[in-house]
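Suppose you are handed a protein chain with no further information: no name, no annotation, nothing but its sequence. What can you learn? This example shows the usual starting point.
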Amino acid sequence: MRKYFIITIIILICIAGCTNSDVFFKYKKIRSSGWDKDSTLVFDFVIADTSLTYNVYVNIRNTSEYPYQNFWFFIKKSTAKRGNTFAVFATDTIECYLADGRGKWLGNGIGAAYEMPLLIEQGAVFDSNTCRYEIVQGMRCDILRGISDIGLRVEKIE
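A reasonable first move is to predict its three-dimensional structure. Written in structure tokens, the prediction is:
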């Protein structure tokens, strides 16, 4: 069983290494005690070519201990104006289903860990080279358990 797991990981790394359209891809680890409702995940990145359009994804990694079918989060998009100050460009509230009505996880997974990529912006245009996305969990609990990582991926559309 362990041998198949290692082979699968190697194949996934090779596949991921073949793509060159990603301009940013990073995960933020959530504390094992849970995601506090006041904790903000901040993703800062630089766009080299603002004349192109991009797709923006949020990748949600959850464990089988996640107690809900859906996941709500708040996202804020900002761009740098002068120096290190950011001007908010857009805010949104997004719902994502992580499981179907019977409790079967919808994302890709191995064992008790699952990953759900979610396209949040198609054809995004950035008016500044320095960009920031801020993500806050929007569930009705103070500490959200079962979400292990949140990732942000920006890919150029070719």
